[in-house]
Specification:
Pfam families: YfhO (PF09586). InterPro entries: Uncharacterised_YfhO (IPR018580). It comes from Candidatus Curtissbacteria bacterium RIFCSPLOWO2_12_FULL_38_9. The chain is built from 28 helices and 22 strands. The protein is an alpha+beta fold. A hairpin with a 3-residue loop joins strand 15 and strand 16. The chain is globular, with a radius of gyration of 29 Å.
Length: about 775
Amino acid sequence: MKKLSSSKLTPFFLTGVVILLFFLPRVYFGLVPIPSDALLGLYHPFRDVSFDGFSAGKFPVKNPLITDPVLQTYPWKKLVVDNFKNLDLPFWNPYSFSGQPLLANIQSAPFQIANLLFFVFPFNIAWTMHIILPLVLTSFFMFLFLRSLELSKISSVFGAFILPFSGYFVAWMTWGGVTTTAMFLPLVLLCISKLSRKFSLAYFLILIFSLSQIVLSGHWQTGSYIFLTSILFTVFKYFSQKSYKPILIIGAAFVLGLLISSAQILPSLEFLNFSTRDIDQSYYEGRKDWFIPYQHLIQILAPDFFGNPTTYNYWGVFNWGEFVGFIGIIPLVLSGVAVLCRRKQIGFLLILLAVSLIIGLKNPISIIPYSYNFPFISSMQPSRIIFLLTFSLVTISAFGLESLLKGRFTIKFILPPIFVLGFLLILALISKYGEILPTVSNLDTANIAFRNLILPIAFSILSLLFISFLRFDSFKKISLLALLVLTLFELYRFTYKFTPFSEASLIFPKTEIINYLSTQQKPFRVMATDRRILHPNVSSVYKIESTSGYDPLFLNDYAKFVSTWEANNVSEAGSFNRIVTPTNYESKLADLLNVKYVLSFDEINDPKMEKILEEGQTKLYENKNVLPRAFFVNEVVRVTGKDQELSKMLDGKFDLANSAVSSAFSFKKQENDSSVSITEYSDQALSLSVDTLISSHLVLSNVFYPGWDAYIDEKKSEIQRVNYMFQTVIVPEGKHDIEFRYEPRTFYNGLRLSALGIFLTLGVTFLLWRKKYR
C-alpha cells in the first residue's frame, strides 16, 4: 500500500520540483519575483536616489516591458490586504484617480484564494509564494488532466512541466492574478472529463469551486477563455457520448459557480457600466497590436526572432509578451508527431487550436465583435487568446511523446523535426540577407533575427537526432531522457531571460520626498507635471492620495473632468490609454480637488506655489490656494446640463471656494459663518465635526459614485452630486457629527446571491450524500 501511495505521489513531486528548482536559487538569496528595478530605474523620485551601489538615475532595468506588476498588481494587492487586516472590506481606493472603487476593480481580486497567504506570511514572502504556487498547481492540475486522457505518467509529467513555462505563463507570471486564473483550465477540463463519464460528488464540488475562483481570481479575459473552452469541451463530450445527464450536471455547476461569485460580479459590472473601458480600450482600423500579427506566429518557433525587451533590441509589433506562443522546439516537434500519428485522439485539441487562431488573427470572422461593438467582448484584446493556443499545443505535445514511448518507430516521427528545421533554416537565410524580408527595416534587425534563430535551429537538429535514435532499442531510453532534459533546459533559459527578480529591500523604498508626503496631515492630494514622477498608483503603497491613476477601468466622468481640466475648456473624455495624469496645476480645478502638493522637474514660478524641498531633479511644491477636502458653500447655482456645470466651474469669475454648481438643484445664496474639522479619516470612511449658523450645503471633493452614504448625527442623509462629479449634503444649523461611508449596494445584493449559491451547493451536497449512504 505504501509503495502504491509513493508511486502515485511521485509524478506530483517531480512536477513540483521542476517548478521549485527554477525559483529556489533566486528565492534562497532573498530575491522576489517582481520588477522593482523598473520602479527604481524609470521613475522619479527613485531615479534621484542612489540604490544598491548604483548612481542616481543609473539603476539597471532588466525588463522595461514588465512594469504593471509593480505599478498595478502590487499596490492593489497591498491595499486589499491592508484593508482586510484593518477589519474593513476593501470597497474604495482613495489613492488613485482622486478615488474610485477597489473591490469592483476586477484585477484587485479581493476574494482570490491565494490572498490567504498574505494573512499568514510577511507581505513580500507571501507575494513570492502567490507567484510560485499557481505555477505548481498548474503543473499538478495539468498532470491530472493528461492522465484523465489516458496518457502515461511520463507523457503527463512532460506536459505538466511544459505548461507553466510556456509563453503565456512566462509573459504574465509576475502579475499573479493572470496565472492564478489560468491554472484552473486543466482542472476544469479534468472535472468535465470525469463528470462526462460518471457522476462524482467530489468532482462536481471541485468544478463549482474552480468556476467561482476563475471569476474571483482577477483576470476576466483569461477566465472568459476558460469558460469558452469548457463549453466547447462539454459539447464535444456530448457528441462523443450522446448523453444529456452530464450536460445538466455540468450546467448546474456553472450556474452555482457564477452564483457564488456574485459578490464580485455585480459591483464589477456596475463599475464597468460607469467606466471608459469601451472608449479607452478598443480596436480601431490600422491598430497593429490588437490581433496577433501574422508574422508574429514565428514566435511559436523562435520567441526572440524579433528581439527581446530584456536585451533592448525588440523590433516587432508592440508588445513581445502579447504574441509569444512559445512552448519549446521539442514540444512543438512532438505536437507535429501527434498530429501525424494520433489525429483521432486529439480532435478536440485541434478544434481548440483552430478556434484560437480564428479569434486571435485578424480575419472576416474575428473582426465582427469589434465592428459591431459587442458589449464586453469588443474591449477584450483578442491576441491574448494565445493562452488557448499554447495550452492546446502543450497538450498535443504530450500525445506526441506518448507516440514515441508506445509506438513503433516510423518515418512520421522524423517528419516534424525536418519540417521545423527546414522552416527555421529558410528564415535564417532570409534574415542573413535582410533586405529581402519586407518586415526587416534594416540590417541590424536582420542580424538580431538571424542570431536568435541559432538556438531554435540547434534544438531542432537535436530533436531530429534523438528522435532518429529511437529506432534503435539500445538508445531509446537515453534518447527520451535527452529530449526531456533538453526541453527543460530550453524552457528554463527562456523563462529566466524574461523574468525579473528584485531584492526585498528595494521593493518600494522611501525617498526624502516620499517621507515628507507620508508624514503630512491627511487628507490631501498630490499631482505631478510629468508622468515619470511618482507614476500613477505608486503613491497608494505609501498611502498618498493622487489625482493620477493607471488602470484599464476608470470612471468616464473623471476622464471627462480631467480632459476639461487639462484643456481649460469643456472637452469630451479623451483616450488616455489607461494612464490618467493631470498636469494643469494652475487651474482652479486643482485647488478644488484638494491638490496640496505638486511634483515637477521644472521650476514653478507661480505665486500660489511654494517650493518645499528638492531631491535630485524632482522638486516638491505646496499649493497655498488649495481648498480643504470638505467645506461649506454659500450658494449652489443651477445650470442646464453637466457640460454647463464644467463650463461654470472654469469661469474665472465663479468662486469655487464659496459657490457650487449643479444641473439638478439650486441653493439660494446666503452668508454663513461655519467651521469644518475632520475627526477621523480612513480608506472607506470620513468623519467630520461641523458647526454652521444656518442650514447650508457641505461640499466634499470626493468622487460621487453609487454606494456612498452620509450620516448626520447617525441619521442617514441624501448625498447629491455637485460640481460635476463631487458630493454634497445639506447640513442643518448647529453643531453636528457627519460621517461619509462607502457601502455599495451592488456588493450586498451580490453577497446575498453568493450566500444563496453556497446554500444551494451545500443543500445539493447533503441530498446527494444522503442518497448515497442511506
